[in-house]
Amino acid sequence: MKFGVITFPGSNCDQDMIYVLKHIMQSDVVNLWHKDHDLQGCEFIILPGGFSYGDYLRSGAIARFSPIMQEVIRFAEKGGYVLGICNGFQILTESQLLPGSLLHNHHQQFLCKNVYLRVETTQSLITAGLTKGDVLKIPIAHGEGRYYADEITLKMIEENDQVLFRYCDGSGQVTNEANPNGAINHIAGVCNAQRNVFGMMPHPERCADTNLHNSDGRKLFESILKTVLV
Amino acid sequence: MIFKASIVVMPLEALLDPQGKAVTGSMKNIGLPEIQNVRIGRHITLTVDAENAEQADAKVNEACSKLLANPIMEYYRFTIEKA
Questions:
Q1: A205 catalytic, yes or no?
Q2: Looking at residues A52-68, what average pLDDT do you find?
Q3: Do A150 and B15 touch (CB under 8 A)?
């Protein structure tokens, strides 16, 4: 599987992602530029974390109209796989490829720490290799990660099994204390109704190398590769 | 004809506005505890070249709905006048 990692002006997790895919997962990966009009035959597009275009107006709002995003939107609408992490997740909600939006954390603080996530579904490429209820320790680093969707949208994504991860404590209990940003229904990651576009606030690429003493993030990349090979 | 638009974008009433909440909290520190419910949005001005006010209105509305505001979390209103 050939991965494409997009660099927007302000992206700062793109090289970490490329490192993980190339050196840890031994996969083909190319770096795509925000001004590109060509996805170079990639089969899986990743929008990395960081910032984009200063995140003026709203996080991801301007990136959504960049040249490469017009290709990504077309690719996703045809069923191509797209994963957005952190700022990438924000760009995907602004593009309306994913439901809902990401608001300022309820306490207005930027958070950079490990959190626990409970796997809510295995009906997605990035969680298919896991077990429902698995608990992963993955870091977050964001100021605007409070997932929000209106009542109708929320009901739809819950009923359609589109919630990928919820914030939880180390034992897998979903509690208010374990919710770092006030996200509605403790949502940390979702997919679209067609299940080919994924978004999550936590950073799996920051915990995929065993040298870092936490490689839970690697399980998501393994899931992608194993599921595709099968 | 050039028109000038003045646009206000605000967080939806139903949503918590943490910025506004923090500023509300500091009102008592400046001796104004009577002030409550601060909500913070964005004021945008721009000019638009259009044949008439109706067309200018339509263009500004399109700019707001596509880019300047996100209807999932914000609402907007604007006024237009000849520049």
A1: yes
A2: 95
A3: no
* A106 reaches B (C-beta below 8 A): yes
B2 touches chain A (CB under 8 A): no
| pLDDT interval class at A70 (50, 70, 90) | very high
CB–CB of A101 and B21 under 8 A?
A: no
Range of the domain at A216: 2-229
Give which of A96, A98, A108 to mutate to test B binding, by max B Cβ within 10 Å: A108
ipTM, 2 dp:
0.86
Q: Domains (ranges, CATH) in chain B?
A: 2-82 (3.30.1280.10)
Instruction: Give the whole-angstrom CA distance, residue A219 versus residue A159.
Output: 26
Quote the pLDDT of residue A229. 62
Q: How many domains are contained in chain A?
A: 1
Q: Residue A84: give its domain's CATH number.
A: 3.40.50.880
Catalytic residue at A120? no
Report yes or no: A143 at the B interface, CB cutoff 8 Å. no
Over residues A142-166, the pLDDT tens digits come to 999 999 999 999 999 999 999 999 9
Q: Is A86 a catalytic residue?
A: yes
Contact criterion met (CB < 8 Å) for A108 and B16: no
Average per-residue pLDDT for chain B: 97
A212-221 LR contacts (CB < 8 Å, sep 24+): A214/A114, A214/A137, A216/A136, A216/A137, A216/A138, A217/A20, A217/A136, A217/A138, A218/A20, A218/A24, A218/A25, A219/A129, A219/A130, A219/A136, A220/A126, A220/A127, A220/A130, A221/A20, A221/A21, A221/A24, A221/A25
Q: What is the pLDDT of residues B15-43, one digit of tens each?
A: 999 999 999 999 999 999 999 999 999 99
> Do A61 and B70 count as a contact with CB atoms less than 8 A apart?
yes
